Amino acid sequence: MSDITFVTALVDIKRSELDSAVFNRPFQRYLDTLSVLLRHLGDKKLVIYIEKENEELIRSIKTDNLIIRHVDCGQLRQSEYHEKLQKIRTNDEWRNQVGWLAESTQANLEFYNTLIFNKIHWLADVAEENPFNTKYFVWLDAGIANAQCHPGYFSKPWLEERLSPHLEKFLFLCFPYEGHGEIHGFKREGLHKYSNVDYVSRVARATFFGGKATECKFLSDKFREIAHKSLDEGYMGTEESLYTILTYLYPEIINVQMIQGNGLVFDFFERLQNNSFNSAISGKEFTGKGTFIHLGARVQQHPKAFEVFEEFFKQNTDLDLVVELGSGGGGLSMFISDQCKQHDIKFLTYEKHPDKGITHNPEFQNRNIDFRQQDIFDEKTKTEVKQAVSESGKTLVLCDGGNKIKEFNTYVDYLKLGDIIMAHDYAPSQELFETKYKDKIWNWAEIVDDDIEVSVKKYKLKDYYKPFEDIAWVCKSKSYQQRTDLYIVTFNSPAQFKFTVDKIQEASPELLANSDKYVINNTVDDSLDTEYKELFQLYGFTEFKKDNIGICGARQFIAEHFDTTKNEYMMFFEDDMGMNSAELFDQKCSNGFSKFHPTLYNDVVGIMDKENYDYLKWSFTEFFGDNTIQWSWYNVPQNVREKIWPHKTKLPKHGLDKNPPLCNFNNIKSYNGLPYADGEIYYCNWPQIVSKNGNKKMFLETKWAHPYEQTWMSYIYQKTIEGHIKPALLLMSPITHDRFDHYDGSMRREH
C-alpha cells in the first residue's frame, strides 16, 4: 500500500526570455519533461501546483490519485518574500559578487526565487491537509527528469518500500562543496553564521526532499524564520542555501544522505535500486540506513555499536566521567547511561535541539539522566565541561554533535593525561571512506585524520581502542608524558602559598594536573610547619625545606634540581603571584592586554614546542613596570651599555630615567588566539616557562655565589643579543601581584 504523497509545481516564469544561452530554457521543455515523469509515476499519489491553462494536459496523462492546485505569477507576486527578493536581486553589489550571477535566473527573473522559496511551504500545506491519508510527504521537482535522474526510477515497484525508511527523519540529499566566496549567491560568511559552523562543506539539493508531517511543518516554519532574517540582512541565494542551513541546525530530525560532488540525485536512486539501503537493520550487518530504535528512541549508529561500547566499558572500569556532546535521538544516551550506572561512572550529555526521544520518552525521563539542553560551543557549556573534567578522574568525551571537527579540537584542550576523546562519523581519510566505509561500515565521513592532525601532534594522542574504527568512531587517548615541573617559593605564610595554588587551580587546572609539583620552603618560623605540611600534602607538592635562601637562591636551587628531572619545561612562582581567573576575561591591563586566556597552560607549552624558545615570559605588565622598557639597560656593565646604547650611556643619578631605551621586538605571532613576541626580551623573577636547554644556558653554564635578579637580567640579556639565548614574551598579563601577608623587609635576603 502506498504511504507517500508526492508534491510538485510547474509555473511559467518566462525563463525562455533570458538572453543567456546558459540559463535560457523554453517552457515547453519543462512541460515535456513533466509529462514523462507523470507517466512513470503512474497511480502514485500526487499533488501538483500549476497554472490553470495546463490542467488539461496534466489530467490527460495522469488520471488516478491526482490533486491539482492552481498557482500563477500573479499569486507569486503576493508571496511574503517577493518584495524582499526583488530588492536584493536588483542590487548591483549582490549581482556582481561573482561573474556568473548577473546572468543567472535568480538575478534576471522576477519570479524565480519567489517560486522556489515556496516549495517547502507547499509541501507543508499538503502534509497538514493530508488528502490521501499517507505517512510521508515528498517534494520532487517537475523537471527532475531533465538532468537530475532518469524518470524510470519512479516507476519501479520497490520505490516506496525502499524510500520510506529514509523518510523517518526528514530527508535531504546533499553534495560535498569546498568552494569559497558564496554558494548560489549566498555569501559564505552568512552561511557559516546562520549554520552555526566554522565552514559549510555541503549543499542540500532542492530537487527531492521530504519526510513526515510534523517535520514538514517544523522545517517550513524554520525556513520562513531564516529566510526573512537573512533577506533582511542582505543575504540571498536559492532555496538550497536555506535548506543547507537547516541541515546544520537540526541534525536530530534531518537525514542527510550524501550524493556525488556533481550534485545529481541519480546517485541516491541508484543506491536504492541496488538495494544498498534497507528498511530495517538485518542482524548485525550495516545495511546503509544507520538508524534503529532503542527503548523508543532513535539511535543513529552502526548496528554493532552497542556491542563495541559494552565491551569497551568492561575493559575500562577505571573511568570516572563520560561526557556526550550531542544527545541526538536519545537512544545512544540511554545505552551509555545504563553502562555508566553499571560501572559507577558519572554521565553528562548535551544537546541544543532535543527530539521527542528525549523530551517525551518516559524511558529517558525515568533514568534521571543529567541531560543539559545547551549549545556545546557556548562558553557556559565549555566551562562546565572543563570544570567537570578537572574535578574527575579518568574522563571520556564523545563528540557526536553537528560539528565533530570543532568539537574534537575544542574539547581535547580540557582533557587530562590519560583521558579519552572520541568522534563519530569517522573515517581515516576520504579515500578510505570511499573504498572501505561507504555502503559497508558507514555512509558519512564528517571527520578524518587530517582534521585532527594538529591536536594529535600537540597532545601526542594515541590510538586507544581500535574496534571503534569498525563502527565509524575515532578513539584517542591523551597520553603525552608530563612535560612541566612547577616550582613555588614560599616564605613564612601558608596563606600566601594557598593563595597561589588556589589561583592556579582556578585559572589553569591543567597546569597543576600536568606538572610535577615542588615547593621551596624558605620559612624560618617553625610554628608554621604543621600547617604548611598539611597544605603540601593536600595539593600534592614535594617540599624542599631551606633556611631562607631568598628568591634568587631558590631560583638557583630550582635550576639545578630541574636539570635532573624527566620533564621538558619548568615554571616558577613566588607565593604572592596569583593567576587571573575567568572573571577577568574582559578586563585589560594598563597596556591594553588581556588578563585571562582559557587554555593558557596548553598554549604556552604549544608555543615552546613550536618555536623552541629557551624561555617564555608570561606577563607583559608587571608589578614594578612593564615590557615596553628595556630594564636590562639599568643593570648591564657600563662598557656594555656604551656599546649597545651609544646614544644613551648615562644612568640617572637618582631614581628612574624618564626616557629609557625601549624593548626591541622581532616578531609578533599568535598561537590558538594567544599572542606573543620574541626579540630582546629581558629576564626577571616573574613567572615564565623555561626549557631544559634554556635552563642550562641561563643558570648553569655560568653561576654566581650570590646571584641577584639584576645579575641574571644583565647576563641573560647579553647572551640574548649574542644569539645564544632565544626568549619570548606573551602579549598578555595573566598574573596579579598580591602580597597580603607582609613580613619584615629586613628578612629579605635580596636586600
Commentary on this structure:
By secondary structure, the protein is of the alpha/beta class. Helix content is 36%, strand content 19%. The chain is built from 30 helices and 29 strands. Strand 1, helix 1 and strand 2 form a beta-alpha-beta unit. Helix 8 runs antiparallel to helix 12. The radius of gyration is 33 Å and the shape is elongated. 43% of the residues are buried.
Shape-level CATH architecture of the largest domain: Alpha-Beta Complex
N-to-C span: 95 Å
- Uncertain parts: 277-284
Number of strands: 29
Strand order of the largest sheet: 21-20-19-22-27-24-28-26-25
- How does the overall form come out from the CA principal axes? elongated
Our Rg estimate from Cα atoms comes to: 33 Å
Largest sheet: 9 strands, mixed
Mean pLDDT: 90
Number of helices: 30
Helix content: 25-40%
Identify the notable features of this structure and list them briefly.
7-stranded mixed β-sheet; 751 residues; elongated; 19% strand; Rossmann fold; Spore Coat Polysaccharide Biosynthesis Protein SpsA, Chain A; alpha/beta; 9-stranded mixed β-sheet; 3 domains; single chain
Give a short summary of the structure.
By secondary structure, the protein is an alpha/beta fold.
Chart the SSEs and their pairings.
Blueprint (H helix, E strand, L loop, with lengths): L3 E7 L16 H15 L3 E6 L4 H7 L4 E5 L2 H5 L4 H8 L2 H4 L9 H4 L3 H6 L1 H11 L6 E5 L3 H4 L11 H5 L6 E7 L5 E2 L2 E2 H8 L6 E11 H20 L6 H11 L4 E5 L7 H8 L18 E3 L2 E3 L5 H11 L3 E7 L5 H12 L3 E5 L5 H4 L2 H5 L3 E3 L6 H13 L2 E6 L4 H8 L8 E5 L5 H8 L15 H7 L1 E3 L9 E6 L5 E7 L3 H14 L1 H5 L1 E7 L7 H11 L2 E4 L4 H13 L6 E6 L2 E3 L20 H12 L3 E3 L20 H7 L20 E7 L2 E6 L8 E4 H9 L8 H13 L5 E4 L4 E3 L14
Parallel strand pairs: 1-2, 1-4, 2-3, 5-9, 12-13, 12-15, 13-14, 15-16, 19-20, 19-22, 20-21, 24-28
Antiparallel strand pairs: 4-8, 5-8, 6-7, 10-11, 16-18, 17-18, 22-27, 23-29, 24-27, 25-26, 26-28
